Amino acid sequence: MAAVSNYEPLEKFAEGSQAAVYLRKHASANLAIVLSCLALIGIAWAWTLDRATFERAETVANAMKQNENLALAFEEHTIRTLKGVDQAISFVKSQYLEHGLKLDIRKMIENGTVDAGLFVLIGITDERGNLVIGSVEFDPVNVAERESFKFHRGNNAEGMLIGKPILGRATRKWVVPMSHRIDKADGSFGGIVFVSVDPEYFTGFYQKADLGEQGAISLMGLDGISRATRIGRKGTVGEDMRATRTFSQQAKNRIGSFLGGGRLDGVVRFLSFRTLAQYPLIVTVGTSEAEVMASFRERERSYYMNAGFASAMVVFFAAFMMAASSRRKLAVEALRDNETQLREAQRVAKLGSWEWHVNTDTNIWSQEHYRIFGRDPTLPAPTYKENPQLYAPESWERLKAVVEETLRTARPYELDLEFLRADGTRGWLVARGEALRDATGKITRLRGTAQDITERKRAEQAALDQFKLAETIFNHSVSCFIVLDRNFNFLRVNEAYARACRREIGEFAGRNHFEMYPSDGKVIFEDVVRTGKPFETFAMAFVFPDQPERGVTYWDWTLVPVLDEQGEVECLVFSLNDVTERKRAQQVLEQSMRQVQALSERMMKVQQEERDDIARELHDELGQTLTALKVNLQMLEPYCADGEAEDHLTEALMITGRALEQVHSITFDLRPAELEFLGLAAVLEAHAARQAQAAGWRLHFEAAAALGRLSPELETACFRVAQESLTNVMRHAGAKQVWVSLGLNGAAVELSVRDDGKGFDADKASDGLSSPSLGLIGMRERVRLRDGRLTIRSAIGRGTEVRASFPIEPAGGREPDANAQTQA
Fold first, then answer.
1. Are residues 154 and 205 in the same domain?
2. pLDDT, tens digit, for every residue of 45-57?
3. Whole-angstrom distance, CA of residue 216 vs CA of residue 67
4. Domain enclosing residue 538, as ranges
5. How many domains does the chain have?
6. Whole-model pTM above 0.70?
7. Which of 93, 349, 360, 372 is the most exposed place for a label (fewest CB within 10 A)?
């Protein structure tokens, strides 16, 4: 026993059965009348006219009832479809608000998150009307002039807008647009989410209900514009229906039926319309008067012929009786057709009906009721005593209780039940029932309806599961979560926050956050409430007033406002992560880095001072001594003009000359004094040329003409990097050609030393897997101290390039930046 929102389908089923009984009784009465009228031709004609009038009215009534049933089913089909569309739009909107332009609707369709069977296109526009996301490939499209976009931009009303049919720019198909407004975080207009529904999806109901060759079905807006219309096999959209009788009738009554001419094709039809309560739409179902009345008019002609024959010849009595029997058969068949259409309407609406005879414990089920429970309709319906096998135990207990209550009080019931199908699967239905009394007032029957709501229940369960998951994350997250009202009173805290505060969760209930933990951060909280915009900060310092022994703690935290339907801040979600240990470790590391950098700078300075001292000693002492020795040896040349002494003197002069050159070279390496007089470009070119001559390279040197003079410190640093690079080429590269360039790049000096030697694995040299040379370390440190950038590119067999970039500094130099970048 179970059921839908009213009992009209069951009542019509009962009326059909009563009509069959009535026809059988009326046929017997007609036979008696015919026998009595054999003597009176006038009575025969009176009966014929009465019969024709009766059947005309009955045929019209049956057609109207059939149309009303189909209009009801079409209404439920339309509402169910629109709710599905509304839910899909709302879901896509929520995902867009969460993921923004990263949202992939096509992926959602592919993995089944969104059922695209209804939609030609699902799309999202920005506030300017540009299509930014779509379920199909699309060219740039702007819909700012569309009616739905203008409506949402000018109105912040919630709910789905059902627009007039349009020709889609992306799909080039006629569609019915349905859309939701998107609000930005500050409540301003952010665009729309829309779907394009094929009008055929609504008028496809025509295929499920036999409306004849000239039948009509229409879905019209309260604005008088057709969303979807089908007349016969032809479908149309967008007609202006305001001049139709349907449009004028619905202004007076929500539901109605009438006989009228078709505005589009002039065909007269029986029309039934229903105005949807939830949406500004009207559904209309119509059947052609000519098709509905065709069988009646055929019978009407036979009536008159039979009456004429009866008037002329009584001998044709037998033939008259056969015609009467034929008429009764046609009436029964018409009734059966009506019952078939009722069953089809119930199937479309997933609506089953039942009737229980209490005294005999027998049930009558409709075809759809059998289908819902998955049972064979050729078998008798289960009795009330067998009902426990149809429901889950808990649902059966509730159903049994309300049935017993209804039998006592005649009070109708309605409840959700979990039922069991014949194949063992489970589902949910809405069950409704009412009591019927006999002539004595005793309750002898219960009747009702059942609607399969399994899909809706599954959606509700999925939403509940998501809520439970969110609760689990909130309660067991290692991050601290707090929910505050707009006045910063605690609403909820999780275990992690209570542990971080070294309190019990119950201590926070009803208390104000800033009364417990006063801080300057209250201004930030007030600003978030005022603007409705979230706030995020990192490593915010905080001292617990009730636990000063903990010292300064540091927190990464985020404050997110939750807005109500009016866009006002309803509450705040406050999430925190304790980064105190990380912050303290970072402070220690930064202090160590500063110390190391200061030490490195001092070492470089001391090293340069030592180089200068050694170079000065070599030049002033050893250089002078060797020069004096060479002069003295030259003075001996006149006395050693012949013989072996001349050879020894010449050799001594050569050795002394080479020693002077070596002293000069060492002095230059230690302290290139020429930098002070000649500048970086000239000194570097000369040094590279000497190295090339010694190593046998082919040198390619290039220096920018606009380079000019730089600060002494910068010229020295740049020369030392080039010097070390050339030394490495000489020692390790085995190169044949070397390219040295010196130029300007904006406000920086660019130095490049490149060779075609054997190269090395630069990645290993830079990731710590191999020990870098002291020369490479020195180059990096010199570049860092000048706020520069060092890049080394090399690969085995492909040569090496050392590139250094130094910012141009004013004369007199500047202090080095500890954050200068180096890269290998």
1. yes
2. 788 888 888 888 8
3. 11
4. 477-578
5. 4
6. no
7. 360
